[in-house]
Write a structure and sequence with these properties.
single chain, 369 residues, alpha+beta, 2 domains, 10-stranded antiparallel β-barrel, 10 helices
Length: 369
């Protein structure tokens, strides 16, 4: 009997503690050709938790498939929810989800490009404070078919990007595969951001030298104070490839938490260990970040591949709030609106003002790699 089966009918029924999938189909050769035998029935029995994991994996696979195979002329029916690229309905939802004139100005500028973009939100936790009006929106550079430099210059000027940064940003387009813009409302100042993402470098290293562990530049970020654009900085995001989970946690502990056990390292370790039960070590993406001219030194661990809901992190998020003395009412106002979204990555370390922080990102599967 061939090992492969092309399913034609799938029926599902439940029993206490079990989901039963009855699959009727025809066996196929390894090349996909059907064999000349009758239909075959197979029964697959899953626990509820495994069935939930299967649903998440299928949803992620469908999102990736639809993004990769959507015809250029096909109408966009997708939504923001679950990380799809936004169509008109999705764009309205995005515009409604951001707060403040400055945030809306950025989204409206991107909408004017007429390209599909991914939208990701986050909340940042600092001592006694949680900041939730933050987002990133990114798109493939090649989706802007003509006049990329001119169109980006218009957006950058509309957002008040310093001319010195704009020149460097535009000169970096040929090497970048993804362009991103972001907004961050702080407790005193608000910041716009623009990023170049060099994902092809990751692909090249993985293809040509999969054992290479040397760090390389994967993002370059340009950030400026909206009220005073003379206050600006540039950030370099270095990727550390091909690290085991043990190596990753060891570096986090040694570089950012002085090798001392306890919070907030225990929170980050808990998130990584939770994700590692659902993803391979090579699916983690680990970055370290430094900004020019300030104290910022941080890390970022991308775990989108685990397909964890924010709600599954709740005990660790509560520990985060306790450690940083964040008012629980403030936390729950954000949490209740995002708990069903997919957790993406965690960043932490020291911010540009020298404060300890953690930031939780969620809501869209990265289009990075």
């Amino acid at each position: 009997m061939a090992g492969n089966l092309r399913a034609e009918i799938i029926q599902v029924h439940t029993e206490p503690g079990e989901f039963h999938f009855l699959v009727r189909g025809r066996p196929v050769e390894g090349n996909g050709s059907p064999l000349t035998v009758g239909p075959v029935d197979r029964r697959i029995i899953l626990s509820p938790s495994t069935a939930k994991g299967l649903v998440r994996l299928l949803e992620a696979a469908l999102r990736d498939y639809e993004t990769a195979h959507r015809p250029e002329s096909a109408p966009d029916q997708s939504t923001v929810e679950g990380g799809r690229e936004p169509g008109q309905t999705g764009r309205r939802s995005i515009l409604e989800s951001v707060r403040g004139e400055e945030a809306r100005r950025l989204i409206q500028s991107l909408d004017g490009l007429g390209v599909h973009y991914g939208f990701e939100q986050s909340f940042k936790v600092l001592p006694g404070l949680i900041l939730g009006n933050r987002f990133l929106a990114g798109f493939n550079r090649d989706s802007v078919r003509q006049g990329l430099d001119e169109k980006m210059a218009v957006i950058c000027r509309k957002l008040g990007m310093p001319e010195s940064q704009m020149g460097e940003f535009i000169r970096g387009f040929p090497e970048a595969n993804i362009l991103l813009f972001g907004y961050e409302q702080g407790e005193k100042e608000s910041v716009y951001k623009a990023y170049l993402e060099f994902g092809r470098e990751f692909e090249r290293i993985s293809r040509e030298n999969p054992s290479n562990r040397s760090p390389f530049l994967i993002h370059r970020g340009f950030k400026w104070d909206i009220a005073d654009k003379a206050r600006h900085t540039t950030a370099n995001y270095m990727c550390y490839p091909h690290r085991s989970v043990e190596d990753l946690l060891g570096r986090l502990s040694d570089v950012f938490y002085s090798g001392t056990p306890g919070m907030p390292f225990d929170i980050v370790r808990g998130l990584v260990e939770l994700a590692s039960a659902r993803m391979r070590p090579d699916e983690f993406l680990y970055l370290e970040v430094a900004e020019e001219g300030n104290a910022r030194l941080s890390f970022d661990v991308n775990m989108y591949r685990a397909n964890l809901r924010v709600s599954e992190l709740y005990p660790l998020l509560m520990a985060m709030c306790r450690y940083f003395s964040v008012p629980l009412a403030d936390f729950h106002r954000i949490y209740e609106s995002v708990k069903d979204l997919i957790f993406g990555h965690i960043s932490g370390g020291v911010d540009r003002h020298g404060r300890d922080f953690l930031t939780v990102y969620y809501g869209v599967k990265g289009s990075t790699l």
